[in-house]
Amino acid sequence: MAEEVSSQMNSLSISETNPSSSATISLVSGDDIVFKVEPTIAKEMETVQSFIDETDGKITTIPLPNISSHDLPYVIEYCEKSIAGKITKEFEAEFVKKLNNEEVKELFLAANYLNIKKLLDFLSQVIADRIANKSVEYVRRYFGIENDFTPEEEAKLREELAWTFTGVDPDDEDEN
Amino acid sequence: MEDGTIQDGKQKRPKSNNEEDVINQLPEGIPINILSKLSIHEAVRTSILSRKWKNLWPYFSGTLEFSGSPIMKDMKKDMKKITGRSLQMAMEIMYDAERQTYTNWIDELLASLKCSSLQGLKLWFPMKNVSDIDNWIQFAVRKKVRKLELYFGRAIDYVLPLQVFKVKRFDSLCVLRMKSVTVTEETLEYLLSDCPLLETLSLIDSEVPKTMKVSGSGSGSSLKLKCLELVRCLELTKVEIFAEKLVSFKYYGSNLETEFKSVSSLMEASFGGSFVEFVRESFMLQIKVLKLDITQNSPDVIYWLSQLPLLNNLKDLELVACGDDSIILGACVILLKTSPSLCRFTIKMLNTEPTFRTEHKFPKECQYSIKELELVGFCGAACQVELVMQILENAVELMKITIDTRLPTKPKVRLLGEEQFKTWNCEENRKHALRLKDKIPPSIEFVCL
């Protein structure tokens, strides 16, 4: 597989010198998989678009070292729907159903890196929904936050903020 | 679209256990994005996560909702139960004290918010003190709130304060929903001409000018308004609407003089109360989604509905009805006949007597176009079964029937009192629904809720 990919990379780097031959943009994931997308999709990704603009459209292969080939198709799918004006509640519900907590966080980071405002906003809502009514411990584990309060400080804070603890659900067994 | 091999779907990427999550290491704006989607209670609770998070919540930019403290809500319920003047007075004093604590808490919370703009502010609980409310509205203007929702109970006569908007323009406002809040003619004019983003205006049980002019400054095209709802605004006698972008219009109330000048975008309409003259509006021809609540209409609603022209564009129709079954059946017949392109038909029925049997027969002169039928409030009444069967006979393209055995949430006017609703038995109704299913051809999808 690695060989196949690297040969594709070579052929793509060759096509770089001749931008007029191809209108599509090639996005290369962190694990070296190439995804060809329409320029309209690239426009949705501000980071990619500004890269293209900076090079006057001469470079059409864009390395995205922070994004894995697992996450990129999701990002592309969302952008395609967005351009088509087909982001509906139903689509979003289906989209998010496929994703576990880890994947949601990774996509969130990808959306942040690519600067796709709509996707970032949507995923913020998804994450918020997933941590809503969860215990402090659950949310710490979710974000991997280290508790740096002393037990006394935390007890005091919990007392002060007792009013915020109405309606907290017990932790689920399954966290992902 | 994609080249190369994609990794196996759920494969985990390596991540060492003690590595702190990257979301937590991102610039502070990122967690703020997330906490702004939470309720303010939960956003504040994130301060217990860690020292870093402790300082983040004041940058909350989401929607603040205040609907009274749990204690206030409990007290309201108790106050309804108790009798005896002295006890009631004592309760009221306690309630006032609790409300004072609650409003002080709101003020403190609002004062600690550092974000320059807020998505929404909802204040929905009984109030007594006008100046407190005025301060909150000032806060909303200052914080560039996009969505404002206000209700302070019926005991207070609150007038939306125009003087506040004169000090600083409320140009962030997109959605304004108010219940029992007075809007003067000048304020209405201000909202429509000086809030350039205003898309939704909803007034329920509110005192409004006798004649409401809904148009922008100058021409109607300057008005961005997409959704207008006027529900039980009793003073209203006339509306003049000149709003090219208006998509949705709702009016519940008594008879009304109307003047619709330029409503070419109007597609959704909703009518209720005793208002029936909508049948003569020329925009009815362009309506795609129509909701009719005939629960407060007298039998002459049948006459009015028969005045409707052919609604060629109507795709989705909802009928809320109660009372005389022959009126319901009659209304269904007329509406189905006048809607040749209808796809979805929803009937919400209230307080139907299970034993009542109607003599009303459906004429079989025309075929209905509907593909989906939904009946809410099914209790197995003979007339309901008959209604479904007769629609079935005339609707050759029907693909799906949904029978909802729950009570429709509406209306607030409970004609038969609470008794009927206590005896409502979903289990029993579901059995009736399954009996109905046996009569329906298997080619039609049957859903029972």
From TrEMBL, chain A:
One GO term of the biological process aspect: jasmonic acid mediated signaling pathway
InterPro entries documented for this protein: SKP1, SKP1-like, SKP1-like_dim_sf, SKP1/BTB/POZ_sf, Skp1_comp_dimer, Skp1_comp_POZ
SMART domains listed in its UniProt record: Skp1
Residue span of region Disordered: 1-23
Gene3D superfamilies per the UniProt record, alphabetical: Potassium Channel Kv1.1, Chain A
Role according to the record: Involved in ubiquitination and subsequent proteasomal degradation of target proteins. Together with CUL1, RBX1 and a F-box protein, it forms a SCF E3 ubiquitin ligase complex. The functional specificity of this complex depends on the type of F-box protein. In the SCF complex, it serves as an adapter that links the F-box protein to CUL1.
Coiled coil: none
SKP1 component dimerisation domain segment(s): 117-163
Source organism per UniProt: Pisum sativum (Garden pea)
Record-annotated SKP1 component POZ domain positions: 25-81
Lineage: Eukaryota, Viridiplantae, Streptophyta, Embryophyta, Tracheophyta
Pfam families linked: Skp1 (PF01466), Skp1_POZ (PF03931)
Record keyword Glycosyltransferase present: no
Protein name: SKP1-like protein
TrEMBL record, chain B:
InterPro entries per UniProt: At1g61320/At1g61330-like, F-box-like_dom_sf, F-box_dom, LRR_At1g61320_AtMIF1, LRR_dom_sf
Domain named At1g61320/AtMIF1 LRR: residues: 166-409
Pfam hit, one: LRR_At1g61320_AtMIF1
Protein name (record): F-box domain-containing protein
Domain F-box: from-to ranges: 25-57
SUPFAM superfamilies per the UniProt record, alphabetical: F-box domain, RNI-like
Gene3D superfamilies referenced in this protein's UniProt entry, alphabetically: Ribonuclease Inhibitor (3.80.10.10)
Species lineage: Eukaryota, Viridiplantae, Streptophyta, Embryophyta, Tracheophyta
